[in-house]
Amino acid sequence: MGDIRQSLLPRDVLSAAKELLYHLDIYICNMVQSGRQPPQVDSKTLDLIEEFILHTPKDRNAPVRRMSALQELQLLEIMCSCFQEQSRDTVRQLMFSALFNLQGNQADESRMALLSKLVSMAVAVGRVPILECAATWLQRTHRVYCVRLAQVLVDDYCSMVPGSGPTLHNIHSASPRFCCQFITAVTTLYDLTSDELTPPMELLQMIVSWIQDDPRLVLITFLNSPLSGSQPISSLDVTPLGGLIRWCIKAPLAYRRDKKQTNNGSSDGEPDAARLFSALHLSVLQVFMLLPNILNEKGLFGRLALLQMESVAALASDLSRLLDQADKHTHAATSDTHAASQLALDRLAQALQVAMASGALLCSREDLRAICSRLPHNNLLQLVLSGPVMYYNNIHTPPLTYSPHAAHSPIPTLPPHAPHTPLAAHPAPHAQYPAQPFMTGMPFPFRPGH
What is the separation, in whole angstroms, between the first and last Cα of the chain? Predict the structure, then answer.
């Protein structure tokens, strides 16, 4: 395609970009049809994209071309139509990669800016092909850039434009793959270490609603996408389970920090947050309960960990720090602080128990004790740390050298919902926080008494 540059130079910026997209589509279609393996866009074509679409030419002497806001909007509409009209997914994915795969050069900032606007528009107008391509991009890209894209969408639909939340909510039905990757990205972004990194209430409500409607949603990337051995270690986790657990466990303490007290002594917005995080915690535990059948069918139970020990260790460290801060700086009553602390520890214990029993977390009892050694006493956590961790059916099979980014065979389908054993409510330490369920149906060698 390098020979079309001279024909693009005399054109205005919008016309040149439109013409290049047209030729790019033809070029990739011919490449796919020829059967070239692996299909790869050449460097000259990437240079044209940077010059005429991203407006960052490699030649410093070349004139800098800029689009007006109206022209940029028109380009986004043209790109939406281009992806919508292309019927072959392989061609769409290759075109999206050519446009937006990061190259480690000065054009990457322009790539991210254009990508963020395109995906935001695709959410607004329901362009599923672009959302599907963006889901693949989120799987393959460094997490730093993934959370930047997620931040733009949260700003656009949960902060800047009041009442636009329902538009973002629709991605659940439009593109479950993108929705799963979006949840993973926002749980990476919002780690509850500060008020700025605490998820907005509207986003939290949205995610709780999605997972309650379809618990399998958070497993879509893991189940339906073949993971290549070359997947970068810096990419997002394969599922958002680790991030969601972090939210639920840290929430009782993080949502109390720096909140204004109302006349009745509770924090503004805290009851709603408590209810939502309680519902989210139950939903995440139910997702873990789907895993044994899936892993057993593939012969991976006890060999493949979806929840990494490094993540659990980091969570325990964060929780220890939050508990210390709550003891030293809280202005609330001592009983309230103790209740919030015990609720966080209860949730940690429940998550560890169910994750181990479901085969999502592979570790020894000694490892867990070491990780949780700095945490204060909690009855439920003590039971989990004291009892036998798990006896795997294939205990004599060596564990896979697996991380969320390592290679494994894709699991094409998810089995139908298994009937859930009724859950017995574990008594909450304080009435302000809803009771947390203890998973009675899990094959665990002990159960705390009530």
Answer: 72
409-427 residue pLDDT tens: 333 333 343 333 333 333 3
State pTM to two decimals: 0.83
State how far the Cα of 427 lies from the Cα of 170, in Å rounded to an integer: 36
Specify the pLDDT at position 302: 79
Element (H, E) at 14: helix 13-34
Residues 301 and 309: their CA atoms lie apart, in Å, by 16
Looking at residue 147, its pLDDT comes to: 97
How many residues in total does the chain contain? 450
pLDDT the model gives residue 330: 56
**447 burial type by CB count under 10 A (0-12 exposed, 13-18 middle, 19+ buried):** middle
| Cα Rg of the chain (Å, integer) | 24
299: left (phi over 0), alpha (psi -120 to 50) or beta: left
User: At residue 22, what is the residue type?
Assistant: Y
How far apart CA 401 and CA 407 sit, in angstroms, is 10
d(CA 220, CA 241): 12
The conformation of residue 96, written as its DSSP 8-state character, comes to: H
Q: By the 8 A CB rule, do 123 and 153 touch?
A: yes
Whole-angstrom CA distances from 225 to 149, 245, 252, 354, 410 are: 21, 23, 34, 25, 6
Closest CA to 138 of 105, 186, 103: 186
DSSP conformational letter for 3: G
**Distance between CA atoms of 207 and 209, rounded to whole angstroms?**
5
The pLDDT tens digits of the residues spanning 358-389 come to 999 998 888 999 999 999 999 999 999 987 64
3-state helix/strand/coil string of 260-285: CECCCCCECCHHHHHHHHHHHHHHHH
Torsion angle, CA of 38/52/57/37, rounded to 10 degrees?
Answer: 0
Those residues whose C-beta lies under 8 Å from the C-beta of residue 37, and which sit 6 or more positions away, are none
Quick one: pLDDT at residue 174? 94
Find all residues with CB under 8 Å of 172, minimum gap 6, and list them.
179, 210, 213, 214, 217
SS3 state of residue 437: strand
The DSSP output letter for 427 is P
